[in-house]
Amino acid sequence: ANRYATMDFRSEAAIAAEIHKFAANGALYRGLRPVMWSPVEKTALAEAEVEYHDKKDTAIYVRFSFACGGAAAGNGPAAGPAPADFADAAIAIWTTTPWTIPGNRGLAVGEAFDYLLLRVTEIAEGSLAREGEKLIVAEALLEDFCAKTGIAGYETLRRFKGAELDGRHFRHPLASQDPGFDFTVPVMLGEFVTTEAGTGIVHMSPGHGEDDFFLCRAHGIAVPDTVQADGTYYPSMPLFAGVHVYKAAEPVCAALIAAGALLHREEFLHSYPHSWRSKAPLIYRATPNWFIRMDGPEQLRETALAAIDATQFVPAIGRNRIRAMVESRPDWCVSRQRAWGVPIAIFVHKTTHEPLRDPAVMQRVVEIFATEGTDAWYARPAQDFLGNDHRAEEYEQVFDIVDVWFESGSTHAFVLEARGLPSPADVYLEGSDQHRGWFQASLLEAVGTRGTAPFKAIVTDGFVLDEQGRKMSKSLGNVTAPQQVIDQYGADILRLWVMNSDIHNDLRIGKDILKQQADLYRRIRNTLRWVLGGLDGFTEAEAMPAADMPALERYVLHRLSRLDTMLRRAVETHDWTGVYPAIHQFCNNDLSAFYFDIRKDALYCDVRLDAEGGLVSQSETRRACRTVLDILFRCLATWLAPVLPFTADEAWRARHGEAACVHLAQFPELPAAWRDDALDEAWTEIRAVRRIANARIEEARRNGDIAASLQAKIVLTFAVDAPEALRDADWAEIMITSAAATDIAAAPEGAGASAPLRAEPVVEIAAGEKCERCWKVLPEVGSNPAHPGLCRRCCSYVE
Q1: How far apart are CA 221 and CA 382, in angstroms?
Q2: Which of 17, 284, 449, 618 could form a disulfide with 607 if both were Cys (CB 3.0 to 4.6 A apart)?
Q3: How far apart are CA 516 and CA 748, in angstroms?
Q4: Residue 771 has what pLDDT?
Q5: Is residue 628's pLDDT more than 90?
């Protein structure tokens, strides 16, 4: 019920309404300019619909022979008289798209670059260069140019700046092959020209490149009709009519050779844009499309950049990525030439060529779409939408459809606002590739219609790779399917793997990694099981105030409060990196290997039960422990619930009954008073000493001196200035030995392995007999004739 789907009628109506807002404020316009075009799908594509793959292509060096010093037939800029040495020279260009040569209408140079006029004196075997010919190239690229074209020797006739070429005219390289190319092209100054590759001279094909288009338009050069929607040259194109651009390299090179214009060709492999649907190579193609203006009275770019600065990004580097994209992006092409999707449902006046901005017409369109869907735009007469105030014959009905990224960018309108949910959203979550896709489309759409971003925060994640860091593919056989993981381990393991990873980077997954996660999961699950066992029969009446608890319990609560702070920071910032690994370490290191280990004795032995297992009496230590276990359970179960929903719910129901649900419980509010940094510092020292002493106990066990730590007495020697907490600690309890003794070193210096210790811990055999109930070795065992096998404490609980 009330689902979100872009194809729902009300969703389609909302998308149309969003387009109308851009039409109403003047930001939507129809214009001619090159866009990424898919010859296979016969439609324009947005940058977000483009993916890059390696492609083998042909690169060529081409001669344009000098024609005249000024403009010919009004084509482009004029220049003063040409130097005499230009008369029989040719300018050399380099391009990786030979199919654009028929569309050439100009040349671009760098105004301040140094160019050379050189005469070829020697050529290598097989070179297409000619001895004695004069060529113009950028000085910075001369060495590479000569090596590629086989020019073995040359003399420099003159050095000059690119500005001297401005306005010179050169003949189209195919002029001798067909009258249709018998014209000259001008040289223009272009800021985009570089000396990184090629010759420092860029050939301009205004129908097939953004820089080309804008530079030629600025000089009054018309955009020729070169390539049709299906990627073939127009029938009117001389020499190449009907040839597909994918196959044009050979015929173009053949024509250039026949014209004496080809200097060199080579095959090379490079990363090239492809359609994300058909996987076919794309081309730039000038075609009329609908655009949303980035710069203008609406100040879309400026407002979007301000919104980016006000948005929280996780990780923070995401801000720089999307900001750079918005800073440099051209106007947003929102039209597609497809047979499906939401139409750009507007009308254009046939005389003024202006979109109809009548609010009544726009409202009528939206209402019809909401009840009938967008098919009505094609099925109903135009007059149904125009009403009585406008005549259909005076208007062109636009049948282009809106870019799917505009659709997804409009989701905030019909997912949040239309449902009465808070807007902007707290967080948008997607993969890192969406900085150029959904995130950016949503940003521009909302900023353009509401003046603000549709989100408060953006969280991005990486992608899943195999254990060796390779992309998954069926051919490699390295795919880890989620369903297989769930079948083998359960869904909770899959979630735990995600949250134990740094999701902002690419994640690795495989059998060994999943096995490790299963081990981690078992430790967490066993922690919950142990806590549940220790809480059997617990009631709120047992609960003890934290201030009355022993230092060990207060230390555990302190550690728990630190985790709580970490968790709540993650909730606020959406950055969960390290949170669940920290919870696992807490369960494993602080609880299982430390707190539980120490408190097992009190939990199992400091209690008297009745015949039915009901609590009769217990020590204050055990009561404090059970209170802490209750707190631990509530925290761990609710903290784990978002990531281990089945496990957490199973544990919750085990304690509170089958009707209970952990997912309806909030994270517990932990008192600030539980934070005790001084206590933490003291127990950090205690645990450091414990690790050293444990090593000695393990050594004694390996040597066969003792079978278990309860057979031992530990002797610790501390420095005179050792912290009081170390000297006063109950070391027999902490070390799980039957006895302990502490000495104070006479001198401040010692050979201990830790600063507080002034001698290596000593392990002795504990004096006395083993208690049959608590297993401690004590001299007092047997002192009670009624219970000759028990110590005094155990006697008190069994009598």
Answers
A1: 37
A2: 618
A3: 46
A4: 95
A5: yes
Half-sphere exposure of 554 (CA within 13 A, CB side): 19
Residues sharing a CB contact under 8 Å with residue 719, sequence separation 6 or more, in sequence order: 744, 745, 748, 750, 752, 755, 756, 757, 758
Contacts of 651 (CB under 8 A, 6+ apart): 528, 529, 532, 633, 637, 662
Q: Which residues of 716-745 are buried (b: 16+ CB within 10 A; e: fewer)?
A: bbbbeebeebbeebebbbbbbbbbbeeeeb
Question: What does the pLDDT read at residue 76?
Answer: 46
Task: Write the CB contacts of 636 (distance below 8 Å, at least 6 apart in sequence).
Answer: 527, 528, 531, 583, 587
> Per-residue confidence at 692, pLDDT binned at 50, 70, 90?
very high
Q: How far apart are CA 489 and CA 432, in angstroms?
A: 28
Q: Rank 89-93, 286-290, 587-591 by mean pLDDT and report only the highest.
A: 587-591
Indicate the pLDDT class of residue 573, thresholds 50, 70 and 90.
confident
- Tens of pLDDT, residues 465-500: 877 778 877 777 777 778 888 888 888 888 988 888
CA angle, 511 as apex, 462 and 521 as ends, to 5°?
Answer: 80
Rounded Cα gap, residues 277 and 778, in angstroms: 78
Give the pLDDT of residue 430.
92
Q: How confident is the model at residue 373 (pLDDT cuts 50, 70, 90)?
A: very high
> Token pair of 550, please?
């022993």
Query: CA 629 to CA 553: how far, in whole Å?
Result: 10
Dig out the tokens for 140 from the structure. Answer: 């910075």
Pairing type for strands 50-68 and 262-275 reads antiparallel
Q: Over the stretch 324-345, which tens digit does the pLDDT of each residue have? A: 999 988 888 898 877 778 999 9
Dist CA 309 CA 323 (whole Å): 8
Instruction: Report d(CA 709, CA 777) in Å as an integer.
Output: 10
Return the structure tokens found at 252: 């173009």
Closest CA relative to residue 165, chosen from 235, 112, 88, 212: 112
Strands 184-189 and 106-109: parallel
Distance CA 500, CA 481 (A): 19
User: 10 Å Cβ neighbour count for 785?
Assistant: 6
The DSSP secondary-structure symbol of 416 reads: I
- Do residues 69 and 186 lie in contact, with contact meaning Cβ atoms separated by under 8 Å? no
Render the burial of 388-418: b for 16+ CB within 10 Å, e for the rest: eebeeeebebbebbbbbbbbbbbbbbbbbeb
Model pTM greater than 0.85?
Answer: no
For residues 588 and 523, the answer to whether their CB atoms sit within 8 Å is yes
The set of residues, in sequence order, having a beta carbon less than 8 Å from that of 677 and lying 6+ positions away, is 558
- Angle at CA 684, nearest 5°, toward 633 and 716? 120
